[in-house]
Design brief:
The chain has five domains: 162 residues, P-loop containing nucleotide triphosphate hydrolases (Rossmann fold, 3-Layer(aba) Sandwich), CATH 3.40.50; 81 residues, Beta Barrel (Elongation Factor Tu (Ef-tu), domain 3); 93 residues, Translation factors (Elongation Factor Tu (Ef-tu), domain 3); 56 residues, no CATH class; 103 residues, Orthogonal Bundle (Arc Repressor Mutant, subunit A). The protein is α+β, with helices and mostly antiparallel strands. 40% of the residues are buried. It is elongated. 29% of the residues lie in helices and 32% in strands. It starts with a strand and ends with a strand.
């Protein structure tokens, strides 16, 4: 079984020094990290344990400014290595990192109390006591990266902790790798790295980069700088991808078996709160190595639908972390691609495992989905169409990859990007009294104009010949517009041209209304402007 261990803990508590002492590898690879003496991005190293077992180590930054990077690394781990400075004890990021690990469902790990050589026996004992209370159930080991004291005990403790991690990586599931690094190597080209969450990947495999919708071919596979025929779930993997530029990929992308996973702008979750999360709150949603802005739609006390500004590639039982200025909560995914809804009963069915509605997946060259899901989609779209404004009785069509195929099976008409009931067209319906009131307002304003705030209604009435819209949200009655048009045509026929002041006097309206009318006549092709005057367009 391949497992990944992730560090956690406050900045300057010695995570990177400890990883270097355990593995012999410095995970601070960036020049800025080496110059500043702190970790900024994720680092990686293999850790050899007794009996030939190997763990993949992800070293995360401890500074509060880089919590986003910490979450990106922690989402792929199986157990934790919490690092605590013996002299300082638990600090702000100690607590926040522990909260993130809990939200991600990381139950097993080891605590290393570092710099044990730099404190007296009493201080060390107090630090050990504090961390045992902070992380009950985890083995605690005092270590010194400087002297090497406690390192063998720590390796043994990590081995025992890894024995507690149940087999959870399904190599038979479709491949899914969340990208955490993208770079180029001379003679190789673009390389991506990440933890393989499920399935296996080998040279020659065709994969799909989601949510970008790119097809890529795997040239070669490495696990910790060693070539392998196939990488398996749980391993840290590097993939060489020929024929694609580095700039087209980034952290947060997901490499998947083609058609095996759907991208979604919505997630149904069981909500876990560290702080109260308000309905409608806009938070950062961390899933895998991706971070997107999302809105929380609460359903009952325990559930929420996360509506995202950008799509993610998720699966049932995945975890998300929700952050604002700090980590405020998280959730376990019940449905990775739900319809837009707030149905409490549906959440409860999903939690019990009774929900049979499944979003489409692309298999064997076609989209497949449950009949129940299709029926729910049809009902949801029908309800939205029924509630639509009668002036435009349609709704925006779904834009997911499956939309073209699925919508063709539903009893709606697609017109451009909108869906309508069969044969439905615009009408006033219950808005006829509003239309009559507008016509009365325009009649009272003759020969001048009136301002109309409801531009959609004004547009509809104009299409029906009941008014004429002018610039800046104004309108005039159809009768007054025809009278103004006749005045202009007759004056130009007699005098050859007409000025703004002359038209204002003939029409008996104000300067602003005269200007708006002349501009509309220009737009309608009746006149054209020459300097400060208008002439008739030649027919």
């Amino acid at each position: 079984m391949s497992l990944t261990v992730g560090t956690a803990g406050h900045v300057d508590h010695g995570k990177t020094w400890l990883v270097r002492a355990l593995t012999g590898k410095d995970t601070d690879r960036l020049p800025e990290e080496q110059a500043r003496g702190i970790s900024i991005d994720l680092g990686y190293a293999p850790l050899e344990l007794a009996g030939g077992r190997r763990l993949s180590v992800i070293d995360v930054p401890g500074h509060e400014r880089f919590v986003r990077n910490m979450v990106a690394g922690a989402t792929g781990i199986d157990l934790f290595l919490l690092v605590l400075d013996a002299a300082e004890g638990a600090r702000a990021q100690t607590h926040e990192h522990l909260a993130i690990l809990s939200l991600l469902g990381i139950e097993h790990g080891v605590v290393a109390v570092t710099k044990a050589d730099a404190v007296d026996a009493e201080t060390l004992e107090l630090a050990l006591l504090e961390v045992r209370e902070l992380v009950p159930g985890a083995e605690v080991v005092a270590v010194s990266a400087k002297t090497g004291a406690g390192l063998e005990e720590l390796r043994a403790a990590l081995g025992r902790a890894s024995d507690l991690v149940l087999e959870q990586h399904n190599v038979d599931s479709p491949a899914r790798l969340h990208v955490d690094r993208v770079f180029t190597l001379a003679g190789i080209g673009t390389v991506v790295t990440g933890t393989l969450w499920s399935g296996s990947i080998g040279a020659g495999d065709m994969l799909r980069v989601e949510p970008r919708g790119l097809d890529v071919r795997v040239r070669s596979v490495q696990v910790h700088d060693e070539p392998v025929e196939r990488a398996e779930a749980g391993q840290r993997v590097a993939l060489a991808l020929p024929g694609i530029e580095r700039r087209r990929l980034r952290r947060g992308d997901v490499l998947v078996a083609p058609g095996a996973y759907a991208t979604s702008y919505r997630l149904d979750v069981v909500l876990e709160e560290l702080e109260p999360i308000a309905d409608g709150a806009r938070l950062l949603v961390h899933h895998g190595t991706a971070t997107v802005l999302g809105r929380v739609v609460r359903v009952g006390e325990r559930f929420a639908q996360l509506r995202l500004a950008a799509p993610v590639v998720a699966a049932r039982a995945d975890r998300v972390v929700l952050r604002e200025a700090t980590t405020v909560g998280g959730g376990r995914i019940l449905d990775p691609a739900p319809p837009r809804h707030s149905d409490l009963a549906r959440f409860e069915r999903s939690e019990r495992g009774e929900e049979t509605i499944h979003a489409p997946v692309f298999v064997g060259g076609e989209w497949r989905y449950a009949d129940a899901w299709l029926a729910e989609l049809e009902a949801a779209l029908a309800a939205r169409i029924e509630a639509a404004d009668s002036l435009d009785p349609g709704v925006d069509a779904p834009t997911e990859p499956w939309a073209k195929d699925v919508l063709a099976r539903l009893p709606f008409e697609r017109r451009g990007s909108r869906l309508y009931a069969t044969g439905a067209g615009p009408s006033l319906g219950a808005r006829e009294p509003e239309a009559a009131a507008i016509e009365a307002q325009l009649a009272a304003a003759e020969p001048g104009t009136a301002r109309l705030d409801d531009r959609e209604l004004a547009r509809f009435l104009e299409s029906a010949g009941r008014l004429v819209r002018l610039g800046d949200g104004y309108a005039i009655s159809a009768r007054a517009y025809e009278q103004a048009r006749t005045l202009v045509v007759e004056e130009c026929a007699a005098a050859g041209r007409i000025a703004l002041g002359r038209f204002r006097d003939l029409a008996g309206c104000g300067r602003r209304d005269a200007q708006l009318l002349l501009e509309r006549l220009d737009a309608d092709g009746v006149t054209r402007r020459i300097g400060d005057e208008r002439v008739l367009r030649r027919r």
